[in-house]
Design goal:
By secondary structure, this protein is α/β, with parallel strands linked by helices. It is built from eight helices and ten strands. The chain is 34% helix and 19% strand.
């Protein structure tokens, strides 16, 4: 594991952008897996603000890490819809260069298995960028997830359902109970490099647990330590070095 403590969120985002650009330079038709959430927003801004961005991404395909089951991209709570607005449109990446599980597929488990097969057939993911969940989750791989888990439908942890419900209450009410997520096994087996981004003082506790603990399903993020190459980028606030 390579650990990089960055002086600020901006510096973290800049370093993450360099990792993405290096992956694209290495393989112009790379698969790049990306999360949603607050943490990657700075990275997404860095990636989209360069006028050369669409050109740089021309051959690349984005793999979406997770989505709510049954939610279409045009619905307001869709994670993929959010990813499109925050990143994909700016990079001029259409649906033909987006790999994801169709959230309204009539057989979601078969669609999950098909995504894993496609990732494998395309030679794996050049770079997988991840955020650290407050309980150590990765995507929708909640505590208790096996290290060899495939891409699948999951019931969200009660804590995640509750925090989502609070968020969506103000936006017309919505309580997702099930999600689709790339499995920990899929991520570990098929990612050439994994970049775990950790930002903010509210992540300091879980980040310390992540650093101290050996790989265990109790904190899914610790399973990433078994990856062939894991780069952890944390800002000083998450590392407990500043307020
Ligand atoms: C989002 C995802 C989640 C988040 C995690 C951290 O696609 O997979 O695992 O990365 O919950 O979220 P933020 O970045 O909002 O703190």
């Amino acid at each position: 594991m390579e650990l990089m403590i960055e002086s600020s969120y901006d510096a973290l985002s800049e370093s993450a952008a360099r990792l993405v650009e290096t992956a694209l330079a290495r393989k112009s038709d790379a698969l790049i897996c990306l999360p949603t959430g607050h943490t990657p927003l700075g990275l997404f801004r860095k990636l989209t603000e360069s006028p050369k961005a669409p050109e740089r991404w021309r051959g690349a395909t984005v793999v979406a890490l997770d989505e709510y089951l049954g939610v279409r991209p045009e619905q307001p709570h869709s994670l993929i819809g959010w990813l499109r607005r925050e990143l994909l449109d700016g990079l001029e990446i259409g649906n033909d260069r987006l790999l994801r599980v169709d959230p309204v597929h009539p057989e979601p488990s078969a669609a999950c298995a098909a995504l894993d097969r496609e990732i494998e057939e395309r030679g794996g993911i050049e770079l997988t960028v991840l955020g650290l969940g407050p309980n150590g989750h990765i995507g929708f791989n909640e505590p208790g997830t096996a290290a060899d888990s495939a891409t699948r439908v999951v019931r969200l942890a009660e804590a995640s359902i509750a925090s989502n419900a609070a968020y969506w209450k103000a936006r017309g009410g919505y309580e997702p109970e099930y999600g689709l997520t790339l499995g920990m096994g899929t991520i570990l087996r098929h990612s050439k490099t994994i970049a775990l981004l950790v930002s903010g003082a509210h992540k300091a506790d879980i980040f310390q647990q992540f650093l101290r603990q050996s790989p265990s399903p109790a904190i899914p993020a610790t399973l990433l330590k078994q990856a062939s190459r894991l780069i952890v980028l944390a800002d000083e606030a998450a590392a407990g070095k500043s307020e």
